[in-house]
Design goal:
The protein contains 14 helices and eleven strands. Strands 3-2-1-4-6-5 form a six-stranded mixed sheet, with helices on both faces. It has a five-stranded mixed sheet with strand order 9-8-7-10-11, sandwiched between helices. By secondary structure, it is α/β, with parallel strands linked by helices.
Length: about 350
């Protein structure tokens, strides 16, 4: 089945046409600095090879508690996605805009919403519950679900088993880690929003919640200013002056102490989460690096797992430098893998399965 995969981000639009059966990509592209998603998608619809498309898959960042699996889109689903914008104000409105444009342009084929949060619907209550007043109505949702789903299954294939427990490290400009037990997400680092967890390109990751109150009281910052600060001006950008990990490495190589500290903080946070999720799983069969930094940065991979030999975790320097799939030594207790994510194929596969079963 040929699937048109649409990913309307807050300021970008990515698309691809994927054969869900063979896994091949028939066309793809990205539109950057998008100000009007309607106009951008209209241009894509004119250029993309859509003659044989049988379904459209739409990435939606937040499904809340309502959507725990892909769903065929109708007007009620679009309205619900817009209602959930309170949980993802930068992404869900853009996702909904893209859906409406594509539905008008391609009315004869089914459209499917694939939610970033859906893979984490299996989180147990002890993992998704925050110790705050129930009346607040908040919980952990988790994100990057399509990536974690694809990579955890790919890791099982590499290991030649289906019943595996893995820790998936999705390290890009946004970063998250998920503990996956036999194909099910049991804990994940991102929370109510994508801000919680690891240090990211421009997001702080974990901080003391009282930081918000402190900044209100001592700096007289508004909630919007704090929101922008934590989401867009923190992370590597705040620590090293740049959110591109390649530039952080370059600066660290020249003796820039701020860049070196940024690398240390970044990798240390990963190592802490690996230790926590080893405990949550009761041990792991593999640790998997994926996404832009995870797939391409041998230094981050090595530094993130340094010192974990007593836990059976070790990185082979030669394999790591060569970018092998298995970068742990032969016979290691815990395999360390590098697997390229393919969220577009995952979305196409989920869409094809839903359409065929409908």
């Amino acid at each position: 089945m040929s699937v048109f995969v649409v990913n309307c981000g807050s300021s970008s639009l990515k698309w691809s046409v994927v054969d869900a059966d063979s896994g091949s990509t028939l066309g793809s592209g990205t539109v950057q600095k998008v100000e009007d998603h309607t106009e951008a998608l209209s241009q894509v619809l004119e250029a993309a090879p859509l003659d044989a498309v049988e379904a459209v898959a739409h990435r939606v960042v937040h499904g809340g508690e309502r959507f725990s699996a892909p769903v065929l889109i109708d007007d009620a689903v679009v309205a619900a996605i817009r209602d959930l914008a309170v949980l993802a104000p930068l992404h869900n409105p853009a996702n909904a805009d893209g859906i409406e444009v594509a539905r008008r342009a391609l009315p004869a084929v089914p459209h499917v919403a694939v939610f970033d949060t859906a893979f984490h619907a299996t989180l147990p209550a002890r993992a998704y519950t925050y110790a705050v007043p129930r009346a607040w109505g908040v919980r952990r949702y988790g994100f990057h679900g399509t990536s974690h789903a694809y990579v955890s299954r790919a890791a099982a294939r590499v290991l030649g088993r289906s019943d595996v427990d893995v820790i998936v490290l999705h390290l890009g400009n946004g970063a998250s880690v998920t503990a996956v037990a036999n194909g099910r997400s049991i804990d994940t680092s991102m929370g109510l929003t994508p801000l919680e967890g690891l240090v990211m390109g421009t997001r702080s990751g974990d901080v003391d919640p009282a930081l918000v109150l402190h900044l209100r009281r001592t700096r007289n910052l508004s909630t919007d200013e704090i929101d922008v600060g934590l989401n867009s001006r923190s992370g590597l950008l705040a620590l090293a002056g740049d959110n591109d990990m390649r530039e952080v490495h370059r600066r660290a190589g020249t003796g820039d102490q701020a860049a070196e500290l940024a690398l240390d903080v970044y990798c240390y946070r990963i190592r802490k989460y690996v230790g926590a999720y080893l405990a949550a799983l009761g041990g792991a069969d593999a640790i998997v690096f994926t996404a832009g930094v995870g797939e391409n940065d041998a230094v981050v991979r090595e530094r993130s797992l340094a010192g974990l030999q007593r836990l059976g975790i070790e990185v082979d320097p030669a394999r790591n430098a060569a970018g092998a799939t298995v970068i742990s030594p032969e016979g290691a207790d815990v395999a360390v893998l590098v697997i390229a994510t393919n969220e577009e194929l995952e979305m196409a596969t989920q869409t094809a399965e839903l359409v065929r079963s409908a």
